[in-house]
Amino acid sequence: MPSSTWRMRSDAWEYLRFAVKRLALGDRSEADEALAADSEIHRSLRSLETLEMYWAGFGQRYVTTIGEMLAAGEYQSALDRIGRVVNRLRAVGTSEEAAGDVDPDSDEEFPGDNDSRPRFEVLVVDETTAVDRDTMRAESLRMRSAADAFVYEYVIVPSADDAVAAVLTNPNILACVIRPGFSERTKQTLSRDLRETIELAHAATTNPQTTARNQLASVQRVLGLADTLAALRPELDLYLMAGAHIEELAGAMTKRFRRVFRREDHLELHLSLLRRVSHLYDTPFFSAIQDHARRPVGVFHALPVARGGSVMSSKWIRDLADFYGLNLLLAETSATSGGLDSLLAPVRTLKKAQELAARAYGAKHTFFVTNGTSTANKVVHQALVAPNDVVLVDRNCHKSHHHSMMLTGGRPAYLDAYPLNDFAFYGAVPIERVKQLLLDYRAAGRLDEVRMVTLTNTTFDGIVYDPYRVMSECLAIKPDLVFLWDEAWFAFGAFHPVTRCRTAMASAKLLEQQLQSAAHERAYREQQEILFSEDGTPAPDEVWLRERLIPSPDARVRVYATQSTHKTLTALRQGSMIHVWDQDWVRDAQDPFHEAYMTHTSTSPNYQILSSLDIGRRQVELEGFELVQKQLDLATSLSQAIARHTLLRRTFRVLTAHDLIPEQYRETGRAMPLRDGLSSMWEAWATDEFVVDPSRITIEISRTGVDGDTFKHEHLMDRYGIQVNKTSRNTVLFMTNIGTSRSSVAYLIEVLVKLAERFEEEQAQRDPEQPLPAEIPMPPLPDFSSFAPDYATDGQLPDGDLRAAFFRGQRRGNIEYVLGDDLRARVDAGERPISAGFVTPYPPGFPVLVPGQVVSPEVLAFMQVLDTREIHGYDPLRGYRIIKNAS
């Protein structure tokens, strides 16, 4: 499948080397017989002959020559050539390939082997001859200069299908030159999955309004391919190289292509390619920090640690510099001069760094945050929510959203996610529940009070929403809603063609485009006839819930995403971002946002965190696709290894979409779509209401006989140094990220095998006459009960005044502590105690009680059987904080 091509390619060369080495070192007659019998060698050659077409470096001719050598019995010569490929792949990895199509008859080293400059590849789409391809590559080598900061190689393919295959399989491609002479269909023998993925990619960008007039056919072919490639890899630079009529083409294609060239303008193309990559490579703030560290300065400012002043002269703490390095201290400063800029009012390097981040993540505006997404959430809430505004918020979201309600005075109307009681955690909030609550507010005449919808995408356990659908249908009921998507765990999603479609920014962009189309307006008018009678009376709620609602063309797209960049991409801890796509930014949001940003942002932000956000942005623009592709593939390898290993599958069970997403929220039937290929994942992510992030592997461990917390601490971390973030009573969550390696996955599998053996041995040695301790059954996960009457708005709808309850609960005279058994007795007697604060167990990591909430029997039953070590807001010696004298 395309997402594992990076591994398939290197493994194929490795296997070929192993097999041919056996032939080269064996008896000639035995070798001939082995070669004839070894179909794996032939399969590897056929696979490589196709794959190498899509990569610069060795080329199809090189593979063909090796096959001819093997057929002629020249095993040692073939082995020498295979060895050169394997050694180069091992030395530089897949991100820096050899230069050009290598002459198979040459014994020289690969051109450019000793060139340490960063290397990228340029896709050229045109039906050409072998002579034309050699000429083009020779021309690029001729123009190469020692002064160039980067070097590049051409990947030349003849068809639109091959172009899509190349950008899906080769992450080194950073630019594409389209020449109108390409054909539509590939002549290569491709896997079924790759063929289906290519068809899905073409279909996703097909414009039904495209004209089919003959005189425009060639233009539409070019535009169609450009749209497809841009949708798959937005970071790609697209260039058009044509012959006649380029003046007319330039005017028609400006939005699709960065530049249009005549075929002979090789130098201008060369300079454009290098300059554009230099823009991606640019890290304005990180470069400013480096320049500052090299400058001799006198510090008459705050911060004694700056320039190492209080460290390097010390007799006692020089080990700080020894451990972290002198550059850390040289880069420390309190000054905002010399190009370092101010985070609160950036005008130079930080301003540019944030603009580059907005480009990378597909936002209109991006803001850096140096104290985590908890603060990012508070900034957005304070900027957009006024006291008594109603916010529809996922009850199981991060505690910072609940705290934001307390700070802003907004009234939360909690949305309950579907429960996964068998595994003791929640899923996500179905769109039907969000729509129903909005309709309830409309029926009560209070829809104007609803300001914002806040949801977590993805959830901690990897349940992914369809933001486009959620926003579309909600805007159909209230066209001025604002959306806040907490994407703390989904920063990587913007850099893969399948996951990108479910990010907030990509969905906002698509939604804005759709609202402006004539087809959308027609569909909207047609649906209005179903939703409203002739006198303007809305149809019953059942109709609104059944329909896939279409928003008015006048709806406003106002979308915010908060992102823990450090959780899934390269950034120092607490490095986060706020991304904005708000059509009313200047009119309604800009000023209050900046005030909120000033409120929560330190005047002394950590420059190392800011630098890491800047350089991490460079990484994802230049190699994010490759890194995310590997991450997803390694997660799939891990899940497959557990499912296929005889011992492991007796002890552990990988939870699939069938376990984590109820059937009514899935249109596709595949349990783990990526296992079946990228096309299967694409289909599921395009159609299902919820999907599972394949980078997260949830393992059910009931058969081990230990709970999740014990498994995490005593077995994984203490014994083997395996770090995991989340457990439930009977599950453990393993997450791959862009730093995960094949070796680390192999180590985890090795550890799981040892643990499975240990658990089986313990069970085998157990005295059969000694009864097992009775397992306490896990009660159903509790939904939000309600706000108490003193804090509820009207008793009919779920929102309440969390802020008033919180501050009442802060005064000692207003509260009492009640132990769990006593509180249960009160509840059983018919009392309705009111929580004075937040009670947040880890796991699951969200408040099971918030200020002003009625303490229900379900909450107490859930808390009684929790075996987690950490519960915020609950004192085991004194019990729960309860508001006194409340009705």
Sum this structure up briefly.
The protein has 34 helices and 24 strands. It is an alpha/beta fold and 887 residues long. The protein starts with a helix and ends with a strand.
Overall description:
- About 5% of the residues have low confidence.
- The protein contains 34 helices and 24 strands.
- It is of the alpha/beta class.
- Helix 1 runs antiparallel to helix 5, helix 7 runs parallel beside helix 9 and helix 26 packs across helix 31.
- The radius of gyration is 30 Å and the shape is globular.
- The N and C termini lie far apart (about 60 Å).
- It has a seven-stranded mixed sheet with strand order 6-15-14-13-11-7-8, sandwiched between helices. A five-stranded parallel sheet has the order 2-1-3-4-5, sandwiched between helices. A four-stranded antiparallel sheet has the order 16-18-20-19.
Q: Shape from CA axes?
A: globular
State the helical fraction. Answer: 40-55%
Contiguous low-pLDDT stretches (5 residues minimum) are 93-110, 208-215
Summed up, the helix count is 34
Main β sheet profile: 7 strands, mixed
**Percent of residues in β-strands:** 5-15%
Core attributes:
single chain, 12% strand
What's the SSE blueprint?
Blueprint: H1 5-25, H2 28-37, H3 39-51, H4 59-71, H5 75-92, E1 119-125, H6 130-143, E2 151-157, H7 160-169, E3 173-178, H8 192-204, H9 217-232, E4 237-242, H10 246-252, E5 259-262, H11 266-281, H12 284-294, H13 309-312, H14 319-324, H15 326-330, H16 349-361, E6 365-369, H17 372-384, E7 390-394, H18 399-408, E8 411-415, E9 419-420, E10 425-426, H19 431-443, E11 450-456, E12 463-464, H20 467-477, E13 482-486, H21 504-515, H22 518-531, H23 541-546, E14 558-563, H24 565-568, E15 576-582, H25 585-600, H26 607-644, H27 646-651, E16 653-654, H28 657-660, H29 678-687, E17 691-692, E18 696-700, H30 708-720, E19 726-727, E20 731-735, H31 742-765, H32 802-809, E21 815-818, H33 820-828, E22 840-842, H34 857-865, E23 870-872, E24 880-883
Parallel strand pairs: 1-2, 1-3, 3-4, 4-5, 7-8, 7-11, 11-13, 13-14
Antiparallel strand pairs: 6-15, 9-10, 12-17, 14-15, 16-18, 18-20, 19-20, 21-24, 22-23
